[in-house]
């Protein structure tokens, strides 16, 4: 692909929730829907996306770029089915946790440029976090193309591929950590006497505001925590309980478990 134009034909395999988020991002980035082909085994889902986005369904053998948006356990079988049948120089973009660019090259053919991406679910609302790693044979224009369309899903960083398992444990699985914490806060607020509706509003807006402060204030999480923690106050009492329960160690243990599972999926 040249730096002066977008790929002529893009294929997307796997049109689930994340697949749709990526499809939307491609179109927002300026890719014409008519140049996008989706491959989705659920006919009803395929028809839904065709109607909503104006894309088409069919073979992706001639595509310049192919997005592989399938579960890690399905990747090897998918790549085996594609090997020798697709454009031998097509850029392959894998979104499967644990599957390396070398794994894709081994099972799809060594001539392909491959980019590995770990997105997260907030990509659905344009507030996602994606980390990319460039495999062999990837040109500058291909890297720019991927970064540009992923920017329509949120923020994008480039990392060395050997750090992708750490990314998975941080931002890939990270939204679920916050959802679990929110569940706990809401349940505790209800136990303290608040209605479920009010508890949910208070918790959601508190987390949203705290995230925005961390993102926009330019201050570290440590500084922001200290700013709202008066000595011997209510916040200090709550944080002391976290400390006594070894919250930092629990978080570290959980993130190591996520990283280890990502490595097991390789």
TrEMBL record:
Pyrroline-5-carboxylate reductase catalytic N-terminal domain sequence ranges: 10-98
GO biological process: L-proline biosynthetic process
Xref: Gene3D superfamilies: NAD(P)-binding Rossmann-like Domain, ProC C-terminal domain-like
Keyword field contains Metal-binding: no
Keyword annotations: NADP, Oxidoreductase
GO molecular function: pyrroline-5-carboxylate reductase activity
Alphabetized InterPro entries for the sequence: 6-PGluconate_DH-like_C_sf (IPR008927), NAD(P)-bd_dom_sf (IPR036291), P5C_Rdtase_cat_N (IPR028939), P5CR_dimer (IPR029036), Pyrroline-COOH_reductase (IPR000304)
Ranges of residues in domain Pyrroline-5-carboxylate reductase dimerisation: 161-265
Family of the protein in this entry: Belongs to the pyrroline-5-carboxylate reductase family.
Protein name: Unannotated protein
């Amino acid at each position: 692909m040249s730096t002066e134009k977008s790929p002529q034909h893009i294929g997307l395999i796997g049109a689930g929730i994340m697949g749709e988020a990526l499809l939307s991002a491609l179109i927002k980035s300026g890719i014409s829907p008519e140049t996008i082909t989706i491959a989705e085994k659920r006919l009803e889902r395929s028809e839904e996306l065709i109607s909503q986005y104006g894309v088409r369904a069919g073979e992706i053998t001639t595509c310049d770029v192919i997005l592989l948006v399938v579960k890690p356990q399905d990747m090897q079988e998918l790549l085996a089915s594609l090997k020798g049948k697709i454009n031998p120089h097509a850029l392959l973009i894998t979104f499967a946790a644990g599957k390396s660019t070398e794994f894709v090259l081994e099972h799809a053919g060594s001539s392909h440029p491959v980019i590995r991406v770990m997105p997260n679910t907030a990509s659905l609302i344009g507030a996602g976090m994606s980390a990319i790693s460039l495999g062999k044979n990837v040109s500058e224009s291909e890297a720019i193309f991927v970064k540009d369309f992923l920017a329509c899903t949120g923020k994008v960083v480039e990392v060395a591929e050997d750090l992708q398992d750490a990314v998975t444990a941080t931002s890939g699985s990270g939204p679920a950590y916050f959802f679990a914490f929110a569940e706990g806060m809401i349940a505790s607020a209800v136990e303290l006497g608040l209605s479920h509706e009010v508890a949910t509003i208070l918790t959601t807006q508190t987390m949203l505001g705290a995230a925005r402060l961390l993102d926009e204030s330019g201050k570290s999480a440590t500084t922001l925590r200290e700013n709202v923690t008066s000595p011997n106050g209510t916040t200090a009492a709550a944080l002391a309980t976290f400390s006594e329960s070894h919250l930092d160690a629990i978080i570290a243990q959980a993130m190591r478990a996520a990283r280890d599972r990502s490595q097991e999926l390789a």
